[in-house]
């Protein structure tokens, strides 16, 4: 049914950051990611690998918070634009994901409407030098720009690194489910309204 790969490119240059993002939603999860925040780079690599979305991300800038925020804006926007009119996709995704002693759960709807409910139950203030508040801010800003309802929770766990890994992988596998082309849907928009707000 769908021949053309769903791809998009976004770039942004400001006094604070320089960010370039390229995505192929119909990729294999290959990635080429460079950011100034090592744990953030690790998070984006997991997102690429487990969504099976090919991602090229190059992000530099003055402050970690600015780089993380602007990357979330561009990555969310690029994936949404690559999904286009969203005809024939599953739209919904959900996944439980264990990471050793940690268990996370995600449920999402790429509906064109943004809503983020997140609770990662993190104990520390930072993980490997990345502020925990910036992890939450990344997820909120990503949901805003993907225009999706994302409910993401770490149910329990001891190690903050494990909890974030479990949460990112649960999110990634839920996006992988939602982006899939639904063989039963033909080219139908998965909404009784006959349209999804993709703009
Ligand atoms: Mn790790």
Give a written overview of the molecule:
This protein is α+β, with helices and mostly antiparallel strands and 199 residues long. It has a single domain (7-179), classed as 2-Layer Sandwich (Ribosomal Protein S5, domain 2). 35% of the residues lie in helices and 31% in strands. It has four helices and ten strands, in the order βββαβαβββββαβα. The chain has helices spanning 38-51, 64-83, 132-146, 160-179; strands spanning 7-13, 17-24, 31-35, 54-61, 92-99, 102-109, 115-119, 126-127, 130-131, 149-156. The strands form three sheets. A four-stranded mixed β-sheet has the order 1-2-4-3, with helices on one face. Helix 1 runs parallel beside helix 4 and helix 2 runs parallel beside helix 3. It is globular, with a radius of gyration of 16 Å. The two termini are 23 Å apart. The model has no long low-confidence stretch (mean pLDDT 94). The structure holds manganese (II) ion. Manganese (II) ion is lined by residues 42, 161, 165.
